[in-house]
Amino acid sequence: MSSNDVKLRSKSGSIAAYSALVYVVVIFFAILAIIPFWYMFMNATWDTYSIQAGVKLWPNFGHIFSQLKANWAYLSNRSTFSFTLGFKNSAIITVSSTALTVYFSALTAYGLSVYDFKGRKLIFTIIVGVMMVPTAVNITGFYRLMGGMGLLGTRWPLILPAIAAPSTVFFIKQYLDTSLSKEIIEAARIDGAGEFYTFNRVCLPIMVPALATQGIFAFLGSWNNFFAPSILLTKQELKTLPLMVSMLYGDRYTDYGAIYIGLSASVFPIIIAYAFLQRYIIQGVAAGGVKE
Known about the structure:
By secondary structure, the protein is mostly helical. Helices cover 75% and strands 0% of the residues. The protein has helices at residues 3-43, 48-53, 64-76, 83-114, 120-131, 135-148, 156-159, 166-179, 182-190, 195-206, 208-224, 227-232, 241-246, 256-288.
């Protein structure tokens, strides 16, 4: 056996070992990510006393459907919880805010990427800087602003601010800088197309992978949002699903089985959405990371 063969075998063995290590690490972190959801779904099949007795990592065999029915019946009888109402409120806020986030962020990123004007780099720097500011820092000023505008107690404070989404603008601009050819825009202008027509009919189809990726992230973030709605939504008929589930905790008695089935019901729609749309996330991230 020649020295080259020995080196090739050693190299292939190192690659195989590295690949195995990568798979082990990925599987480990995947299990860590799944465990909280598994724990939540399993607890939804048990009663309160069994849950308090110890950790349940398996379903209530033999009584799964009966216990689920009992937990859901208790949940449905609570005056502070209505799955239909909570789902409707969450869907209205999430779909509206996601649509505004995706379209106006794409429009902003398009302007910063395509047009060459004075102060463009400064504006982009400010957008990146705003990304670093936590929501909790400006919630007081935002609350007073919404109060001054008479919008407290409505859905608008959770929908309208979605127009300004710095992280989405940043991602889409980076995508456009690497994927959008300005010759296409010039050709559209030569053909007599207006700026908005060019953006809507020529550029938006090119942005689909990035828009789909950011749309999914915006959808998940808005659906799971608890902090802002807990402060801004004061009317019971406008509460979202996460808020309604949080109101199940009682001072003297808490039915944990009902809480876990409520959590499962609130999380299940986004799990289904993610399962069907995850390929767009992968495509968007991969496309955004490709350099010309």
